Amino acid sequence: MNAWKRWVALFEEKEDPAEPHYDPVHLAVVLTACLVVIGALFWLLWTLLVYEGGLPLKIVTLLTPGKPDHRVTMEGWQANLAALFLSAYVIQLLFKADRRAAKRGP
């Protein structure tokens, strides 16, 4: 019987108050939040750089002399500009958060 109790004790959780408590729900929330942020970043960069030719192609088309085909290259410029402004806003928020953390110190 003593061997059985030792075997069962291997699988029992011992509550140590000094040890941090990890909840599987917290891990699931962190993983879900990471996936959402990665998806939003992918959407933002894809819209800015790839969608309907991307913003760099539209800028080059506008600055190039001659008669470019604006019908093909200028589609989707609203989405490209929205992604540009949104990414600039996110960068500004991250910069402000970093400056606040630097003021507080370690």
List keywords for this structure.
mainly alpha; 5 helices; 106 residues
Q: What is the beta-strand fraction?
A: under 5%
Percent helix, as a range, is over 70%
Number of individual domains: 1
Number of helix segments?
5
N-to-C span: 54 Å
In round numbers, the mean pLDDT is 85
Main beta sheet, described? Answer: none
Instruction: Count the beta strands.
Output: 0
Structure overview:
- With 106 residues, the protein is mostly helical.
- The protein has one domain.
- 74% of the residues lie in helices and 0% in strands.
- It contains 5 helices and no strands.
- α2 crosses α5.
- The chain is elongated.
- The N and C termini lie far apart (54 Å).
- The mean pLDDT is 85.
Give a short overview.
This protein has 106 residues and is mostly helical. The chain is built from 5 helices and no strands.
Topology:
Layout: H1 2-11, H2 24-49, H3 54-63, H4 70-73, H5 77-104
Helix pairs in contact: 2-5
